[in-house]
Amino acid sequence: MARKLEELKKQYNSVSHGMSLRGGGPGRGRGPSGKGKPKNMGKTVGRILSYVGKYKLRLISVFVCMLLTTVSSLCAGYLIAPIINRITLEVNPDAVLNPSVLEQAADKLISAFVSTRFISSLMVNTAASVTVYVLAALIILGTVYGIAAFGSFLQGRLMLSVSLNSIKEIRDDLFKALQRLPVKYFDSHPTGEIMSRFTNDVDNIDVMLNNSLTSIVSGVISLVGTFVFMLTTNIWLTLITVLFLPLLFFAAGTIAKNSAKYYGAQQAAIGAVNGYIEETISGQKVIKVFNHEDECIDEMNLLNEDLRNKQEKAQFWGGVTGPIMHNISLVSYAVTLGVGGILIATRGFTPGALTVFANYSKQFSMPISQLSQQVSTLFAALAGAERVFNVMDDIPEPPDAEDAMEKEIQGHVVLENVSFGYVPDKTVLKNISLYARPGQKIAFVGSTGAGKTTITNLLNRFYDIDEGSITIDGNPLKSYKRDFLRKNIAMVLQDTHLFTGTVMENIRYGRLDATDEEVIAAAKTASAHSFIMRLEHGYDTVLEGDGANLSQGQRQLLNIARAALSKAPILVLDEATSSVDTRTERHIERGMDRLMKNRTTFVIAHRLSTVRNSNAIMVLEKGEIIERGDHDDLLNQKGRYYELYMGIKELD
């Protein structure tokens, strides 16, 4: 049972991190947990500050508001001391008090306010003097707390503006960086992993900037301010409070360590559950066909029980932080009151000062608890920021040469002794040589993995060749500007992708300046016009979810129409008709014949019937061209092509 659980967790944590965007799941939600510490904290913090630092004036204002709020709150608390002292003297005129400098200053402030015309008019007799004194103190208290509240509001509003603007710029820069990355990056990184940078990691940075950062800074200010006021009030009581600090730090550190560990395990368990649910939902037909419902329920129970156990531990440690820190502060509070009572009896310590100090003592643990709770969030955010910046710093596509040109392309393509491998120790193509004149149709057939699609990737410069040369109209590929080259090569891929928008907009993606009439003509060329007109709103039908309301064949027809709209002189068809029925295929072939006229066309196909009219057919096996010629020539050779055509007729 334990081994089965570990296998499932390992498998579906991987699934959750690599889920495609189309499928949803964790790739569309929170993504990887983002736990752990950054490898280079200083550099990461510096990068974040480069974004936040653009708003220096607002940050200074935030810091001033923090100081204003903290000092106002601490000072307001100190105004309670003279009130209690005045009531004590009223009850016991013979009491001997030794007020501190701060108490005397607070008393003078209240007395000065009492002497104003507005307050003095309320004093009808001497007996009411204490009441009026308290009333004046409450008015001052309300004013000071109002200032603190306004400072807190302004601080939150300004920091929200800073964090949201910074996050917007980070997200913009991340997206721009992705657009500059080569296809190799997307081939080697799952969609869910990339999406998690925009969701989980960027959200963690947002939480840090908007909440954690301000909580940490204000906590430090509050801690220092409280300590100063405590020290000013009574050094001996301050010493007693300080003696409890090691216990507070030990408790906070232990809880934070265990909390981070178990919350990390909880996130991993959530990833496993989400990944499993995503896969079972998307594979419901297969599950029902093979009657594996009960097995799926058992596996889900294992993963769900593991998640429950992890959540129980994580939430236990997260929940005990407050009570433990609170109770330690209560012990410190009780000891402070006891010693303070002795000081009142023996040293003339005032009851008001003891009341204020007791409140400060009780509040002293709050910033420590607050700081300990924010540490794990801070590290998670910095680790996420490091991953975001790693994407930004990844090697983009090499820049075009300074003399790169935008010369009109006719479509004469030549490959000479081309060798290539996606990784250094594994060669995919070996000494490939071929040519295609404008208007010719060159077909590639062969087993899966033989290197057919790789050749088309090289034509677009999605990858650069290792050896040999590829020229177009006698010019090396690298002599053309990369974007200009790709504008002159239209592609119809096996895996179709439609964007959210109307049918018209999706076809026009092939050439954004095309008119509606040209779009419709392209759809007719691809034999897509008839089914489009049967849609509820025709060309204005909105497609969502990658065209989920269309059949696979209909989606492919729109993909072909998109390529038909392009005026590119070179056309690449990678299994363009693999998802349509035979009848539709014949319609497409007639349209494609018109489309391919005067264009250099490269066709990859498993259906050998689609390549019969090619000018040349290249048979690839293990990265090498083992046969070449037209359909009749290859049949006469009675080699691999003959076997495929006359026998198996499938290349897999």
Walkthrough of the structure:
- This protein has 652 residues and is an alpha/beta fold.
- The protein has two domains: 2-393, Up-down Bundle (ABC transporter transmembrane region fold), CATH 1.20.1560.10; 413-648, P-loop containing nucleotide triphosphate hydrolases (Rossmann fold, 3-Layer(aba) Sandwich).
- The chain has 23 helices and twelve strands.
- The strands form three sheets. The chain has a six-stranded mixed sheet with strand order 6-9-10-3-11-12, sandwiched between helices. Strands 2-1-4-5 form a four-stranded antiparallel sheet, covered by helices on one side. Strands 7-8 form a two-stranded antiparallel sheet.
- A hairpin with a 2-residue loop joins strand 4 (467-472) and strand 5 (475-476).
- Mean pLDDT is 81; it is low at 14-35 and 648-652.
What is the name of the CATH architecture of the largest domain? Answer: Up-down Bundle
Query: Which segments are poorly predicted (pLDDT under 50) over 5 or more consecutive residues?
Result: 14-35, 648-652
Biggest β-sheet description = 6 strands, mixed
Beta-strand percentage range: 5-15%
Mean pLDDT: 81
Q: Please, how many domains?
A: 2
Computed structural class: alpha/beta
Strand order of the largest sheet: 6-9-10-3-11-12
What characteristic shape results from the CA principal axes? Answer: elongated
Reading off the top of the CATH hierarchy, the class of the largest domain is best stated as Mainly Alpha
Find the CATH superfamily of the largest domain: ABC transporter type 1, transmembrane domain
How many strand elements?
12
Helical content, roughly? 55-70%
